[in-house]
Amino acid sequence: MALSPKGKQFTTTIQSLDLKGVGEGDIIEPLPKKNQRKLRLAIPYTLPGEEVEVEIGAKLKRRYRGHVLNVIEANEQRIEPRCPHFGKCGGCTWQHWEYNAQKETKTAQIKQFLTEADFDPTVVKDTIGMDNPWEYRNKMEFTFAPDGSLGLHEPGNFKNIIPLYTCHIMGDDMLEATLAIANWVKESELSGYNKEAQEGLLRNVMVRRSQATGEMMLAIFATDRPDVVATIDQLIDKIAADFPTVKSLLWLVNTDVADRTQSEESHTLYGRDFIYDEMFGYRYRLWFDTFFQTNPSQAEKLVELALEMAQPKKSEKMIDLFCGVGTFSLPFAAQVGKLAGIEIVESSIASAKRNAVDNGIDNTYFLAKDARHGIDEVLETFGTPELLLLDPPRSGAGGKVMRRIARSQPERIVYVSCNPETFARDIKELTPFGYDLQTVQPVDLFPHTYHVECVSLLQRETI
Length: 463
Prior knowledge:
The chain is an alpha/beta fold. It has helices spanning 99-116, 172-187, 232-242, 296-310, 329-333, 346-358, 371-382, 399-408, 420-428; strands at 9-13, 16-17, 23-31, 35-43, 51-59, 64-73, 139-144, 150-154, 157-163, 202-209, 216-222, 246-253, 265-271, 275-279, 282-286, 317-321, 338-343, 364-368, 387-390, 412-417, 435-443, 453-460. The longest helix has 18 residues, at 99-116.
């Protein structure tokens, strides 16, 4: 058995970035008896073309993790990160890279996946970025360490929490309110949750803020009810006095072993259990577990692009697949004759129905069902739609759903994607059914990370 290379130091050149924006490089490790072996490295926070000195870390599936000791020759687009936590907390991956280079890489990534799937990459336009790529997130989730410190998970070490005192991808008011909770926890000497021992009180803090209304929500996830905390009234009084935009302060009980921000029991400590947000002129109610785009200004751009590509008409019927709470449904419903929204999460469908009523939309039908069977049910009563929009999760829609979409024969399909790899895989399923990829517009919703969204139009060929 070959000896582990862990702890050894080498010099390598970064050849490329992987799908998570991590640098990739090779090294040749000398072995006894004049032998050698080639090792593939994953080296976070490096850029293409850089020559770096690294120390070999943990073994991954097909690679070893490399930790940068020194950047010998830097990429010319490398810059000084704005955040002192960069490289430790894992919230950002590319703060050390000029923003234009980030956008160019995201465009190239989409073109690469489409090329590999036999599509014409020239249909991909340049990524639309942000004028100010900072303080764009309207939702953040933080985790408590067993000692009560609040922060984010260390990359590659899920057990370790990096305490935070600043964050440049969310607003200052969100940060200040979050730190107020963190300080209260320390002053009250409350325990954080220990995942290994499965003991401790506090698990997570979630903060949401509407950029349109300014309303803010604070949600504390704990393993017991709030009445076990003697100082809970001190927190309520402080939030009410110092943060007038907080319209919802929640205490959510979560005793599940799984490390998810879920709730078995909800307590509204202050205000209501939701906040209002607005997008593209429509008002939405957001609960703690409501999925809503975390970059609202760029999300509005997604809606604008989808409407521009789809060219909806009042004479047409439309299906909105993976509709969520109606982010796309409401703007499109105002421009088509009838719209059916399909979403497997029942609470999201309940929200979509309520949001339609709140906004005076009366030509929608929302169904809580999985995508494939939901299409069948809608088609029976709804008929063939001229237009279909889908905005699936990162895992994509899948072959069965895409083939079912194709067999329903909409004239136009607008696919909104948050994962170029699954996007290319999904739309390839449409090709045998006569659908042609017309255009792809990437939009950067997550500056300083490797994530990118895109809006695309596919048209059914007519004979």
